[in-house]
Amino acid sequence: MLRQYELVERVKAYDPDADEALLNRAYVYTVQKHGSQKRASGDPYFSHPIEVAGLMTDLKLDQETIITALLHDTVEDTLATIEDVEKNFGPEVARLVDGVTKLSKIEQMPENERAAENLRKLFLAMSEDLRVLLVKLADRLHNMRTLHFIKNEDKRRRIARETMDIYAPLAERVGMYEYMREMQLLAFEQLEPAAYATITGRLAQIRSQEGGQVDEIALRIKQALAEGGVKVEVSGREKHPFSIWKKMAERHVSFEQITDIMAFRVVTNTPEDCYRALGVLHRTWSMIPGKFKDYISTPKSNGYRSLHTSLVYENSMRVEVQIRNSEMHRTNEFGLAAHWAYKQGGSTPDGQVGWLRDLLEILDTAADAEELLEQTKLAIYQDRIFAFTPKGALYQLPRGATPVDFAFSVHTDLGASAVGCKINGRHMPLRTPLANGDIVEIIKGPDSEPQLGWLSFVVTAKARAAIRRSVRQKEREETARIGQELFDSIVERMNVKIGKKAINGALKRLDMEDETSLMLAIGTAKLTEKDVMEALVPGSGSELPDDSFWQTPARSVRLRGLPKGAEFKLSPCCHPVPGDRIVGIREGRKVEVHSIHCMMLAEQDDKRWIDLSWDQRSDGATGNLRVMLYNRLGTLSEMTGVFAANHANITHLALQTRDDLFGTYEVGIEVRDLAHLTRIISALRASDAVAQADRI
Questions:
Q1: CA-angle at 111, arms to 106 and 116, nearest 5°
Q2: Would you say 97 and 73 are in contact if contact means Cβ atoms under 8 Å apart?
Q3: Do residues 648 and 671 touch, judged by C-beta distance below 8 A?
Q4: Which of 116, 273, 337, 472 is deepest in the core (most CB within 10 A)?
Q5: Can you tell me the distance from the alpha carbon of 390 to that of 32, in angstroms, rounded to the nearest whole number?
Q6: Do residues 671 and 623 lie in contact, with contact meaning Cβ atoms separated by under 8 Å?
Q7: In Gene Ontology terms, what is a biological process of this protein (predicted)?
Q8: Are 430 and 402 in contact (CB under 8 A)?
Q9: 639 or 691, greater pLDDT
């Protein structure tokens, strides 16, 4: 743990004008506030914020960021308040500390909702000042370094998964590759301990067997470049264990089949030297086609610049080489933080970047915690392609992006009005995946609007958020229209002329702002028929029963995205169960729910689609199976025994065909969710009585 004077000396070394007294006061403040609190490791709790502050000094950040790191847990874990922080250290530090602090109000929320709310607050704070993110990343990195001290395995895995899914990609998006790699390695150790042990063990074995081979190759590369007139520094290492495991999983290969285990970094003096070095290497050794990437002429969205190539070294060994100059190297390792260290004038870092604006748009459109987490992961992952407008403007998109994703990246209005596209001058469907270098022209329609069906193929979070926002607005308008129809029906049966005065009186009695609010409340069944009549003409609804004619009975299956008050049924053509991706087809106030893979959807107008998902409280549905049994004594009993062993009730059983060899049955069974149904199908297929079992 850094001592007080050591921390101050670190800051003064790169910022001689830093307020030494303020830094000392912040150090003492965090020690006093955390007092006798202990971490899982047994160390004093204040050692954690002090180490986080030390990480910030490595990045040479300003004193406000260092103080924020020292104080970042005081509001969450001690009796200190934001007001105390502002009084002692000023409004800027208080704002930064508040941005990093988790919301105390959400501690009782379910896990995914708590994570979503923490992300929501983090992103909003980042929009004002990205230093919040730097402190948060350093906080998470130090917590990951000490994660092994937590005894509860489930808690360790939850923290590791959150780090792998959210914080490591965020570190990559701001170019902090050192943080990203260490987070991934520490999370990988918790999530896949067997794979981690195997790969790190094999790497250690390679090092012991091959001795100084990495150093030998690095020296040979340096000599070849010196002979070519390029002065460089060369370093080499084995590839990151998580990177190796990811490549093994993606390519379905073994460790022995990974040929480019070694990677080398060449650091030159100037950008021009990078290209000269590349030429020398390609003349000296054969390059592997398709493995060259120029991130200097076309940097990544986080500012990363480098040349990447793969070479065939002696004995057919493949090695990866990255070439950059010293300025690129610092930026590549520490991203935006490296830029801020040399920023001239003022201490506030550059705030907004494009991908962060997209995240803020997601905050406004996410319907629930599950959607926010899903769209956040989509927005921050970084497997990218490059596409151009007809005028040559360059846009970076995730791999698999379509022209609709491209249109929303250019401008939300362009995406909303898209009706077609041209890719490289040819008319193509809007669902066509884009390739690197495609020139994309979006064809607009005057009255077009986003279609719900687009959600089945768009991949960017910004596009999904915009489409869902438009769909919800259409649903609101449709709900208001239904409410108006029901209102007119009520008025017609009252046999009383209802004018503007009566409606205004009803709005006042119901404490509503306008007629639209009234129609929405009627359309979503928040108001009964009796409520409406009483509000319009007091006393007129006294003879009606309390329940409304449009209310929907309770059921065990619950859906998200369904207009309130709407009736629904699970389609008999595809029998969706919780866990399936689903959409609804609207017919007035009735909605039929289909699996996204249902063939019947191709015959439906996608303007009638409603984006639906299962509520967590849904406790089952009926799955339909076609089971072919061997035609011998006892097979039917064995099949029903499989259902009983897996706690599934049979709702119907019908013999379809039978011959000397087989009998084919259609079976309906009650299941909890898709996983339950899948286990049952697997158990059927494993039975000697069953020749074939499929879902229908």
A1: 65
A2: no
A3: yes
A4: 337
A5: 61
A6: yes
A7: guanosine tetraphosphate metabolic process
A8: yes
A9: 639
**Model confidence at 376: pLDDT above 60:** no
Residues contacting residue 43 through CB under 8 Å, at least 6 positions apart: 1
Which residues sit opposite 611 in a β-bridge? 583
Helices 674-686 and 635-645 sit at what angle, rounded to 10 degrees? 150
The alpha carbon of 133 is separated from its chain's Cα centroid by a whole number of angstroms, namely 17
Q: Token pair of 599, please? A: 């063939």
Q: Which residues of 30-42 are buried (b: 16+ CB within 10 A; e: fewer)?
A: bbebbeeeebeee
Amino acid at 426: R
Count the neighbouring beta carbons within 10 Å of the beta carbon of residue 182: 17
Residue 437, classed as helix, strand or coil, is coil
Are 566 and 584 in contact by the 8 Å Cβ rule? The answer is no
Most confident listed range (142-156, 157-171, 381-395, 670-684): 142-156
Contacts with 473 (C-beta within 8 Å, 6 or more apart), sequence order: none
Element of type H or E holding 237: strand 233-238
pLDDT top residue among 350 and 1: 1
Could you tell me if 133 and 126 are in contact, meaning their C-beta atoms sit under 8 angstroms apart?
yes
Cβ–Cβ < 8 Å for 121, 99: yes
Contact 110, 373 (CB under 8 A): no
The DSSP code sequence of 617-685 is: T---EEEEEEEEEESSTTHHHHHHHHHHHTT-EEEEEEEEEE-SSEEEEEEEEEESSHHHHHHHHHHHH
Q: What crossing angle do the helices spanning 369-380 and 111-128 adopt, rounded to 10°?
A: 50
Write the burial class of residue 446 (CB in 10 Å: 0-12 exposed, 13-18 middle, 19+ buried): exposed
How far lies 391's CA from each of 55, 374, 558, in Å?
44, 33, 49
pTM: 0.53
What is the model's pLDDT at position 554? 36
Separation CA 605–CA 50 (nearest Å): 60
What does DSSP assign to residue 152? -
| Sequence letter at residue 580 | D
In DSSP notation, 323-378 reads EEEHHHHHHHHHHHHHHHHT--S-SPPP---HHHHHHHHHHHH--SHHHHHHHHHH
**Measured CA distances, 99 to 60, 120, 125, 608 (Å):** 21, 10, 5, 42
Whole-angstrom Cα distance, residue 604 to residue 573? Answer: 14
Given a cut of 60, is residue 369 above it in pLDDT?
Answer: no
- Residues 309-325, mean pLDDT to the nearest whole number: 86
Compute and round to an integer the Cα radius of gyration of the chain: 31
Rounded Cα–Cα distance for residues 418 and 424 (Å): 17
316: tokens are 């057919």
Tell me which residues are annotated as active site: 76-77
Name the most confidently modeled range: 143-147, 338-342, 426-430, 470-474: 143-147
Answer whether residue 455 shows pLDDT above 70.
Answer: yes
- Average pLDDT (14-31) is 93
Contact 88, 73 (CB under 8 A): no
Name the more confident of 350 and 19: 19
Query: What local confidence, expressed as pLDDT, does residue 336 receive?
Result: 55
Residue 437, burial from CB neighbour count under 10 angstroms (0-12, 13-18, 19+): exposed
Share of the chain above pLDDT 70, in %: 82
Q: What are phi and psi of 218, to 5 degrees?
A: -60, -45
CA dist list (Å): 157 to 151, 154, 161, 632 = 11, 5, 6, 48
The neighbouring-strand residues paired with 584 are 593, 610
The residues pairing with 265 across neighbouring beta strands, listed in sequence order, are: 235, 322
Residue 532: CA atoms inside 13 Å, Cβ hemisphere, count? 29
Amino acid at 583: V
35: phi then psi, degrees, rounded to nearest 5: 50, -120
| H or E element, residue 154 | helix 153-162
Q: What is the pLDDT of residues 227-282, one digit of tens each?
A: 999 999 998 887 788 888 888 877 777 776 676 678 899 999 999 999 999 999 99
